[in-house]
Design goal:
The protein has about 240 residues and is of the alpha+beta class. It has seven helices and eleven strands. The protein has a single domain (about 10-155, about 175-195, about 215-235), classed as Hypothetical Protein Pfu-838710-001, CATH 2.40.320. It has helices at about 15-30, 55-65, 105-110, 120-125, 125-135, 205-210, 225-230, and strands at about 10-15, 30-35, 45-50, 65-75, 85-90, 95-100, 140-155, 160-170, 185, 190-200, 215-220. Strands 1-6-5-4-3-7-8-10 form an eight-stranded antiparallel barrel, surrounded by four helices. Helix 1 (about 15-30) packs antiparallel against helix 6 (about 205-210). The longest helix has 14 residues, at about 15-30. It is globular and about 50 Å long.
Length: about 240
């Protein structure tokens, strides 16, 4: 594990809607709603995931490789004022994230699989230089759009963040981040949402009491893997 990175715990669950409503009502009493949330208490997330010519990110996850990474571009509420290129690093239940801000022109270039457009200022950013190397030498390319609605709650004690990701959608083989004609379909059963629990060293007891995760199904597959299965070409690509 790279000690220079800030690693956190990350645990995921499938939660039935009735149980989600109960848990979120408890959390509202002890945690703070995410400040990014809109009037309805949530916000839209769109991610464009990348993988190399060997689909390493996909197959490492399916094979249960302990140390693995994923690359993605992420934006919120379909706005172009905040766009990040991110590298998510995972070791067992620990995660770390490296990200750099990019502009819309750069994001559109990446979504077209074009790494030649990167200017000298962006190349000074370590992550962007790394992505350039991956695209040039390992044929890292955009693979799938992942959309969902996120509701999030935070607590300073333990640096806890709990998110409820609803209406998970996949863009199939469409990878145009800002395309108005991108059509998406449901990626999981509509009766479930994905709850993610992220924290540093510990979860305070009062949050554990509010969560009461006993009996909830632990969820191992990533959103990327879930959405990639809709464009698989072989049966053995199933998660």
């Amino acid at each position: 594990m790279n000690n220079k990175l800030k690693y956190r715990h990350e645990v995921k669950y499938y939660v039935p809607y009735p149980q989600y409503f109960v848990i979120k009502q408890r959390l509202k009493n002890v945690m703070t709603p995410d400040f990014h949330a809109g009037p309805n208490g949530d916000y839209q997330v769109r991610s464009l995931y990348f993988d190399d010519v060997n689909n390493k990110a996909l197959f490492d996850k399916q094979a249960g490789i302990k140390d693995r990474v994923k690359y993605r571009i992420r934006l919120y509420n379909m706005r172009d004022d905040v766009i990040h290129f991110e590298k998510k690093i995972k070791t067992n239940d620990y995660i770390a994230k490296v990200k750099e801000s990019i502009d819309r022109e750069t994001a559109e270039g990446f979504s077209n699989g074009n790494y030649h457009h990167i200017d000298s200022a962006d190349m000074k950013k370590n992550l962007i230089a790394e992505v350039f190397h991956e695209m040039k030498n390992k044929l890292l390319r955009p693979k799938v759009i992942v959309d969902y609605t996120r509701e999030a709650y935070t607590a300073d004690t333990g640096n806890v963040r709990i998110t409820f990701d609803k209406n998970l959608q996949t863009g199939l083989e469409q990878v145009n981040l800002f395309g108005e004609d991108v059509q998406t379909i449901n990626a999981i059963d509509e009766n479930f949402i994905i709850m993610e629990v992220k924290y540093d060293e510990f979860i305070p007891d009062y949050i554990k009491t509010a969560l009461q995760t006993r009996g909830i199904q632990r969820q191992a597959a990533s959103k990327y893997v879930i959405c990639r299965k809709f464009i698989k070409s072989n049966a053995w690509e199933d998660q």
